[in-house]
Amino acid sequence: MEQKNKIFLIILTALLLGGCGQTVDHKGKTPLVQVGNEFLYKEDLRAAMPVGIKGQDSIQFAERYIRTWVEDALLFHKAEGNVPDNLKLEELVASYRKALIVHAYQEELVNQQLGDSIDEAEIKQYYQQNPTLFRATQPYVQGLFIKVPVKAPHLGNVRTWYKQNTQDAVDRLLKYSIGNAVSYDYFYDRWLPVSDLAAKIPLKELDTDFGYLEKKKNVEVRDTAFCYFLHVEHFLPEGEQLPLEYARTEIKEILINLKRVEFINRVKQDLYNEASEDKDIIYYN
């Protein structure tokens, strides 16, 4: 099988190289296949090989890669000679190349001058000045959640502690969770979307009633294996302004883009002013 594949490659290369007697500078690379004036090199094939591929798999990959390269090259040459209005096509290519060069230059300038750092004060200011831009698409809550096996000891104490937002109750529950809880989440200091809790608690109301936890501050659910305890200290309804921690990433991107546009416009204006002063711009009537 290996010999057969080697023969295939030799024949394919011979057919495609046949009739091409001109001298070509391959810059130290080893040609495998030629179509017209295009070459596929051994080094290109090696670079395209997936890491760790060996034996018959590597031979099959090489065959497919070479065949695809040849077909693409042949299709390009066929299209190149049959697409009407080549001048218009060249203009489009030149325009696209110009846009790519300008974009690359702009990105380099922005990265050098601005980077991606935004001051926290700027984020908070934008958040406060644009409350309608960041609305919650679902409720968010602050509180505490604990999941324990149904046979865990002292469940009566857990029922008392999880409802109390006191340092003593939280400390007791934390110590208890170390040896007994399957899951323990303290989020009095941050907001969680209700969908995150719905994934943890087998309670259908969390999927169907977005305002359920606004009315029900303490939730206890039990199945055949576990008891689930949830205390809601604060509730943020759907449609209210998102907590800053959830809006921060979006605000940062907005501010970076605003600064980017402002910076690029300033660069353009400076270039225009400089060219005008140097009389490098010529207007024809």
From TrEMBL:
Pfam families for the chain: Rotamase_2
Q: Do you know which InterPro entries this protein is assigned to?
A: PPIase_PpiC
The chain positions of domain PpiC read 118-248
* GO molecular function per UniProt: peptidyl-prolyl cis-trans isomerase activity
Superkingdom as given in the UniProt entry:
Bacteria
This chain belongs to the protein called PpiC domain-containing protein
